[in-house]
Amino acid sequence: MDKRSPPAQAYFLPDTCRPLNVLYITLISLLLAITLALNSGFINGNYWSALSLNALFILWVAFTCAALFCSCKQRIRQYSALKSCLLIFLVINLTTMFLSWLISSVLPSFNLFPSPSQTPLNIYLRNSGISIIFSGVLLRFLYIQFQWRQQVSAEAEAKLDALQARIRPHFLFNSLNTIASLTRLNPSLAETLTEDLAELFRANMHMTTRLVPFQQELRLIQQYLNIEQTRLGDRLRIELEVSAIPADALIPPLSIQPLVENAVYHGIEPRAQGGTLRINANMRQQLISLNISNPSGSAHAPRSGNNMAIENIRLRIQSCFPEQGKLLSSEADGEFHTSLRFPYQTLAE
């Protein structure tokens, strides 16, 4: 049974803790305040006064709701889309009612806010009507965005399944030939390589979790490189330095090993003299960057197909880490560079 966890970006409510989303909330609030001021301010001749009061009230409501959603985001993410809709609707409208009562009845009595020109009932009806209409439009927008993210996530999951089920035939045949040649010369090494190959097959066939610890992915990389190092010998030189990545950092399964396999297959194996595969990493401000560099490949016999695995992994990284996950690739000075960037997350988060 597939026990894959739900995609991180498929949650109905956006993360209001992110500065970028707070900026969006601020801009939308100001646009709403300008619209309301244009509707009433020019008629009464007090546009700037209406704009300032509307902006103050709407931003107050928006930031209060954003703070509530941010503080309870872990619990909200466990709710279904319907429950999230009801929660958002209730929080926005109850907050609007509470702040309407505050500015119409409480603050003016302490001379902390100018007395409203309208009766409290008119203020409640006006603010509640605007809040209900706006929250309805907002929920419709969030639902459409939610459906779109689900569709993108489903496509990414399908590509993940295809990538997991895909073992390059050349790697399988070459590995089996290498193991067969070592059976009599070095039985213990042949046994070790067989175990490594079996582990790679097991990882490809039974990987059902959405995120795995980096230590698990690193073990697959080392098993793969162990096989290729035995096969290619001195033609494959490896520089591996990834100690900067915590062992418990979560990453999509099979997101690094295919990149390493690409580097060997397209960059080192076609070259008669081989080349150096460099894998290094660093972490700054909870953002991990893993870099892979290899020779660009043989100019006489270039191999195509290098972009398919890269594009698949790019979609998966963006799917698991919205706005923060990136996969960049470039070619310069005879070397092909791949950089994988993702935030440091653990199971406890």
Describe how the helices and strands are arranged.
Elements: H1 19-44, H2 47-71, H3 73-76, H4 81-109, H5 120-164, H6 169-185, H7 187-206, E1 212-213, H8 214-232, E2 236-241, E3 250-251, H9 257-268, E4 275-284, E5 287-295, H10 306-320, E6 326-332, E7 335-343
Parallel strand pairs: 2-4
Antiparallel strand pairs: 1-3, 4-5, 5-7, 6-7
Helix pairs in contact: 1-2, 2-4, 4-5, 5-10, 6-7, 7-8, 8-9
Structure characterization notes:
The protein is an alpha+beta fold and 349 residues long. It folds into two domains: 8-161, no CATH class; 172-343, Heat Shock Protein 90, CATH 3.30.565. Helix content is 61%, strand content 13%. It contains ten helices and seven strands. The protein has helices spanning 19-44, 47-71, 73-76, 81-109, 120-164, 169-185, 187-206, 214-232, 257-268, 306-320; strands spanning 212-213, 236-241, 250-251, 275-284, 287-295, 326-332, 335-343. Strand 4 and strand 5 (287-295) form a beta hairpin. Helix 5 runs antiparallel to helix 10 (306-320) and helix 8 runs parallel beside helix 9. The longest helix is centred in the middle third of the chain and has 45 residues, at 120-164. The radius of gyration is 28 Å and the shape is elongated. Mean pLDDT is 80; it is low at 1-10 and 299-306.
